[in-house]
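@channel sequence for tomorrow's demo:
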Amino acid sequence: AGRLNLNYFEQKKGQWLHLLLQEIEYLNQPVDSLINDIILRWPQPEFSVSQIQELAEKLRVFLSFPQVEEYFRPAAGRQVLREAELVNSEGQLYRVDRVVIDPELVTIIDFKTSYPEAPEIIEQYKKQVINYRNILKEIYPHHTIKAILMYLDRGYLEEIK
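structure tokens (generated this afternoon):
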């Protein structure tokens, strides 16, 4: 039963972190106040105060990494899509966590709560963002398309070639 509860908590934690990240278009105010504002808008009664503080700190640390922060900064000509819906040529619907559209570059970002131990899960993640990249190549044929997996637990970014 303990294992099941851990999986449930880990799932809820991942969903809530995604929800918090979805709310952030740009880091145009101090990270702490931004996170606090979002937490007030999206209360999570199933989490204890200490769990919420732990998740907020995890998010604060994640957003403070320069390689992460770069995709949350305003830039000339930049547009950000959050939870963007994409449809492939067969009519299948997909939802991308974050798409950063710059004048010559489109960056797909898929957030993952933690880095998986199983290589087959990593491959599944890679196939997922490659699929997003293929769809966006059709939408933005004159842009370079970059696909990134961002692991929140490590502040680790992996560009998928």
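heads up for whoever presents: The beta strands are 79-87, 93-101, 105-112, 144-151, 156-160.
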